Amino acid sequence: MTQLFKAILLLLPFCSIILSGCSSTANKSSSVIARQDPKQRIAQLTQLKQWKVQGKIAFLKGKERNSATLTWHVNDNNHTQQLSLTSYLGINVLQLDSHNNVHKVQVDGETYQSADLEALIHSLTGFTLPTKALASWLKGIPFQNKDSIIYQDHTQLPLSLTSHYNNQVWQVSYAGFQQIDDYSLATKFSIKKDDLIIKIAINEWSVN
Length: 208
What we know:
208 residues; alpha+beta; 48% strand; globular
């Protein structure tokens, strides 16, 4: 792990909250999940173009354990997104602003810009992260048609997703969902590639 990546995450201690249960309070939420045909669910969530999540994100690699508070707002209708990582003390350690495929990342008082977000993140952290696919996996739907999904028998919600993204194998495991308005949305999941694990727990979903 690069020193700059450590600086980005401020070497925050790994918090047990990322492994605990979480609740979604924005919009009308329910703990009762509506059973839905997987193809219908994918079609419905593909049309969800504007949403916001707040929660926790943790990065595990080898003996490293780093976590931060995550706020992510996506509006595909006007091709914008804002992502913020903050420390336990509320200090902003990373800010991403994207518009029309121009990405600006602010870290430690410095601003970096690129049309290739994955390359930009790689140059800052040393990691190749699935930035294009993450918004789809966050909703519990495939990013590519060739993504393979295993579903729960009773709810027909995803248990796991396997993707050969950028010629690398990514494994997404889902541990929780909540009904938000008419959408069944993931609240807790993990992404694994080799010895890198990314854990995300959503405390609040807002959908439009």
